[in-house]
C-alpha cells in the first residue's frame, strides 16, 4: 500500500501551489484566484493513506488527492459564501475538517492525529475569514509547540520538554553534576571504596597460604591461628569501612534529594499559570515526592553499587591474570554474550520503565482528585464509581509493574546461566592442571574464590540495569521540570513601582490560551485611577481572561497592557502583584487558622489590622461567634466554613493587603443577598481609595459602577454607565431584563 513520505512535502505552503500538484488541475479548480495557503494531509476522506492537499483562496477551498501513479483528483471547490461554520471533528486515530452548509456538517479533509494541531489552526483561521477577520498567516506557518522542533517527537503536553532530547543530554552525567558541591565527601567515598576493595582481595591470598603451606603439607601448624586472626582483622576493618561508606553515602544522598526537592519547588513557583493548565497536580506531586528518591539511590549505587563493582572487577581481573593467565582468559568467554544481551535488554526495558513511572503518576493524579473532591463524591453518591476508577489506575500500575518485573525475572536467571559456563570451563581446565601437577590445590581454590568475587560484581552490574532504567525514567521527569522555561519573565532592568495610582489601559490586545484561537480580539479599554469598573458578558466571552492579563498571569500575543502608563512586561511580577489584590469566584483557603488565612498576603499584619479587614468584609461577626474566634483551625480548602463565609474571609485577605487595584471575579456570587449587600456597602467605601474591577453575572451589584464594559465573543460590544447602557437597549439591557424576570418568577 502506498504511504506518503512526509519528508518529501512541506506541511504548510503560504501563497504558493505545492510543486507536487498538477498546475493545470489547480488552474481548472480555482481559476485565476490567488492561493492564500495550502496544507498537506496524509489521508483521504475514506481513510486511505494518500497525498492530499487543501488549497484555500479568498473565496473557496478545494481538495486535491494525488494517487501513487501521479494522477490528481479534485474534490470541490467549496465556496465560502455558503459556509455557516468550520470545525474539526475528532474520531479514533484521525479527524475531519468540516464545513457547515445548510445546517449540515460536510467532511472536507481527513487527517491523522499527527497533523491535528495544524488543522486546528487552519479551522480557527477559516472561521475568522468567514467572520470578516484578517487572516494570520504567521499562525499557520509557525512551528507547532506540541511537537519537538529538534527530533519531531510528539510532546506529552504543549511546550513540555522532549524526553528523547532530554535523554541525549545525559541524565547520568547531569546527576553527577548535582553532586559537585560534595566533592570532599565523594573523594572520601572513593578512598574508602579503594581501601575496601584492597581488603576484599586479601582473604583469598590467605586462603591459598593456608591450604598450600599448612593444611595440604600438614606443616607450619602454628600458622593456623595467626592466619585466622589476620582474616578476622581484615573482616573487622572491612566492616568498619562499609559502615563509614554507608554513613557518608546516606548523608550525601539525603542532602541531594532535599536540595533537589527545594529546587523543584522553587522552579514550580517560577513557572507561569499556563504550565499548571497543562500538568495535573498529582503528576507534579509524583515527580517531587517519588521520582526524586531515585537520586538518593543514585548516590548509594555510586558509592556501594556500580562504582564499587567496577573497582572490584578491575582489581580482581588484574590478580586473576597475574595468577593464571590461561584460566583468566577462559573466564572472559561469556562476557561478550552478557554485554550484547544487556544492551538489547536495556533498549527493551527502558520503555517499560517509563510506562511504570507514568502509571504511578496516574494513580497519584487519581488519588489527589478523589481527596480534593471528597465532598462532591459523597454528595452525589459516587463512591462506588470512584472505587472503580481508582481500581482501573491500580490495575494499570499492576500490569506495568508485572510486565517490568517479569522481564527482569527472565533476564537475571539467563545472565546467571551464561556466567555458569565460565565456572564450568575453569573447573575443567583447572582440574586437569591440578591432576597433572601443574597447579596447586590452594592456587585453584584461591582462583575460584577470586572467580566468585569477579562474577559477583559483573552479575550485580547486569542487574544494575533494573535500577538504572528506573533512574533514567525518573530523572527525565525531574529534569523536565527543571528545564521548563517560564512563559513569563521579569525584565533585566525592571521599572520600579514604589507607588501605584491605579490607572489601567489595554491597547489593541489579542490573546488566546491556544495562540491560534484567540479569546480576546483587538480589545482596547482605559480605566482611570480610583474608578469603579464592572465587566459583564456571557460565559466564555473573555471576562476572566481580561483579569488574567491585567494581573499578568499570561502575556498578550498582540497589543499592550499598561499600569499607570507602564507596560506590565517592564515591571517585576512581584512588584506588580504587590499592588493588586484578586478575589476569585471559587475561594481557596489553606489548612491553617482563620487569622493566618486573612494575613496570608501580609504575614506581618497585627491583630488589629486582621480584625479591621474582617469587619470590612462582613466576616468579623461569624468569626467572633466561634469558640476560639480567629484561632479556629480550618481544614483543607477552608472546610469548616460555609461557601459564603469562605468568600468573605478571602475578601478580608484581599483588603488587608491595602491594594491600589482590587479585582473581584464573581466575588459575591456565593453569598446570600443580605451578606452581599453588606459587602457591597464596605466595597463602596473602600473603593473610593482604589481602582476596583468587578466581574459579575449578578448585574445588580454593578449599578453603582462608574463604567461597565460588556464583553461579547472576545470583543467590547458596549460600555458606559448603567443608565447609559439601559438607554442604549443593547446586550446589557437585555441581560438586565432577563435577570429581572427571573427574580420576579423566583419571588412569585
Tally of separate helices:
26
What's the name of the CATH homologous superfamily of the largest domain?
A: ABC transporter type 1, transmembrane domain
Radius of gyration: 36 Å
CATH class of the largest domain: Mainly Alpha
Mean pLDDT: 77
> What is the CA-CA span between the terminal residues?
70 Å
The CATH architecture of the largest domain can be named as: Up-down Bundle
Please, could you describe this protein's structure?
With 748 residues, the chain is of the alpha+beta class. It folds into 3 domains: 6-141, PH-domain like (Roll), CATH 2.30.29; 163-483, ABC transporter type 1, transmembrane domain (ABC transporter transmembrane region fold), CATH 1.20.1560; 504-747, P-loop containing nucleotide triphosphate hydrolases (Rossmann fold, 3-Layer(aba) Sandwich), CATH 3.40.50. It is 54% helix and 15% strand. The chain is built from 26 helices and 18 strands. Strands 14-15-16-11-17-18 form a 6-stranded mixed beta sheet, with helices on both faces. A 5-stranded antiparallel beta sheet has the order 1-2-3-4-5. A hairpin with a 5-residue loop joins strand 2 (37-43) and strand 3 (49-56). The longest helix has 53 residues, at 383-435.
Amino acid at each position: 500500500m502506498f504511504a506518503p513520505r512526509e519528508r518529501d512535502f512541506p506541511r504548510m505552503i503560504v501563497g504558493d501551489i505545492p510543486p507536487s500538484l498538477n498546475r493545470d488541475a489547480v488552474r481548472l479548480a480555482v481559476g485565476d484566484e490567488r492561493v492564500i495557503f495550502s496544507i498537506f494531509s496524509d489521508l483521504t476522506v475514506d481513510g486511505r493513506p494518500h497525498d492530499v492537499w487543501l488549497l484555500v483562496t479568498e473565496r473557496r477551498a478545494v481538495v486535491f488527492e494525488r494517487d501513487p501513479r501521479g494522477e490528481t483528483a479534485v474534490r470541490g471547490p467549496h465556496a465560502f459564501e455558503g459556509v455557516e461554520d468550520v470545525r474539526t471533528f475528532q474520531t479514533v486515530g484521525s479527524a475531519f475538517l468540516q464545513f457547515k452548509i445548510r445546517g449540515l456538517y460536510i467532511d472536507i479533509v481527513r487527517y491523522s492525529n499527527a497533523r491535528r494541531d495544524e488543522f486546528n489552526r487552519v479551522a480557527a483561521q477559516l472561521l475568522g475569514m468567514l467572520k470578516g477577520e484578517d487572516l494570520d498567516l504567521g499562525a499557520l506557518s509557525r512551528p507547532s509547540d506540541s511537537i519537538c522542533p529538534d527530533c519531531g517527537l510528539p510532546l506529552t503536553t504543549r511546550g513540555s520538554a522532549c524526553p528523547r532530547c532530554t535523554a541525549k543530554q545525559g541524565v547520568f552525567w547531569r546527576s553527577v553534576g548535582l553532586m559537585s558541591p560534595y566533592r570532599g565527601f565523594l573523594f572520601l567515598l572513593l578512598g574508602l571504596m579503594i581501601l575496601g576493595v584492597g581488603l576484599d582481595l586479601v582473604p583469598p591470598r590467605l586462603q591459598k597460604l593456608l591450604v598450600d603451606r599448612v593444611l595440604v603439607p600438614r606443616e607450619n601448624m602454628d600458622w593456623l591461628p595467626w592466619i585466622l586472626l589476620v582474616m578476622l582483622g581484615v573482616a573487622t576493618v572491612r566492616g568498619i569501612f562499609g559502615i563509614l561508606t554507608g554513613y557518608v553515602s546516606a548523608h550525601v544522598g539525603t542532602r541531594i534529594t532535599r536540595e533537589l526537592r527545594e529546587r523543584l519547588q522553587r522552579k514550580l513557583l517560577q513557572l507561569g499559570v499556563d504550565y499548571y493548565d497543562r500538568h495535573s497536580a498529582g503528576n507534579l506531586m509524583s515527580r517531587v515526592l517519588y521520582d526524586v528518591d531515585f537520586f538518593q539511590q543514585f548516590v548509594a549505587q555510586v558509592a556501594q553499587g556500580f562504582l564499587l563493582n567496577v573497582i572490584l572487577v578491575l582489581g580482581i581481573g588484574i590478580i586473576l591474570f597475574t595468577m593464571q593467565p590461561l584460566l583468566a582468559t577462559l573466564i572472559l568467554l561469556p562476557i561478550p554474550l552478557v554485554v550484547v544481551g544487556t544492551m538489547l535488554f536495556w533498549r527493551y526495558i527502558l520503555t517499560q520503565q517509563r510506562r511504570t513511572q507514568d502509571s504511578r503518576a496516574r494513580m497519584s493524579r487519581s488519588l489527589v482528585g478523589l481527596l480534593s473532591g471528597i465532598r462532591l463524591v459523597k454528595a452525589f453518591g459516587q463512591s462506588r464509581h470512584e472505587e472503580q476508577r481508582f481500581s482501573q489506575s491500580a490495575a494499570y500500575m499492576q500490569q506495568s509493574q508485572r510486565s517490568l518485573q517479569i522481564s527482569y525475572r527472565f533476564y537475571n536467571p539467563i545472565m546467571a546461566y551464561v556466567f555458569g559456563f565460565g565456572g564450568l570451563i575453569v573447573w575443567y581446565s583447572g582440574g586437569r592442571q591440578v591432576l597433572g601437577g601443574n597447579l596447586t590445590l590452594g592456587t585453584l581454590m584461591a582462583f575460584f574464590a577470586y572467580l566468585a568475587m569477579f562474577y559477583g560484581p559483573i552479575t550485580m552490574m547486569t542487574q544494575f540495569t533494573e535500577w538504572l532504567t528506573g533512574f533514567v525514567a525518573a530523572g527525565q521527569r525531574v529534569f523536565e521540570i527543571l528545564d521548563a522555561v517560564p512563559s513569563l519573565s521579569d525584565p533585566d532592568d525592571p521599572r520600579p513601582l514604589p507607588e501605584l495610582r491605579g490607572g489601567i489601559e489595554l491597547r489593541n490586545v489579542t490573546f488566546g490560551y491556544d495562540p491560534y484561537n484567540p479569546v480576546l480580539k483587538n480589545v482596547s479599554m482605559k480605566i482611570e485611577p480610583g474608578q469603579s469598573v464592572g465587566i459583564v458578558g456571557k460565559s466564555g466571552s473573555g471576562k476572566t481572561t481580561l483579569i488574567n492579563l491585567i494581573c499578568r498571569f499570561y502575556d498578550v500575543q498582540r497589543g499592550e497592557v499598561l499600569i499607570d502608563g507602564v507596560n506590565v512586561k517592564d515591571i517585576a511580577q512581584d512588584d506588580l502583584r504587590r499592588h493588586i489584590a484578586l478575589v476569585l469566584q471559587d475561594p481557596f483557603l489553606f489548612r491553617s487558622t482563620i487569622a493566618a488565612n486573612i494575613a496570608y498576603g501580609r504575614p506581618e499584619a497585627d491583630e488589629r489590622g486582621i480584625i479591621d479587614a474582617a469587619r470590612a468584609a462582613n466576616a468579623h461577626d461569624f468569626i467572633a461567634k466561634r469558640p476560639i474566634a480567629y484561632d479556629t483551625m480550618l481544614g483543607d480548602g477552608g472546610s469548616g466554613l460555609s461557601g459564603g463565609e469562605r468568600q468573605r474571609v478571602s475578601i478580608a485577605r484581599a483588603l488587608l493587603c491595602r491594594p491600589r487595584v482590587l479585582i473581584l471575579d464573581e466575588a459575591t456570587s456565593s453569598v446570600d443577598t443580605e451578606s452581599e449587600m453588606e459587602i457591597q456597602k464596605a466595597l463602596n467605601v473602600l473603593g473610593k481609595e482604589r481602582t476596583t474591577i468587578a466581574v459579575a453575572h449578578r448585574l445588580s451589584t454593578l449599578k453603582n459602577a462608574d463604567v461597565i464594559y460588556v464583553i461579547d465573543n472576545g470583543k467590547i460590544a458596549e460600555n458606559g454607565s448603567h443608565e447609559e447602557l439601559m438607554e442604549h437597549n443593547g446586550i446589557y439591557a437585555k441581560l438586565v431584563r432577563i435577570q429581572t424576570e427571573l427574580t420576579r418568577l423566583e419571588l412569585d
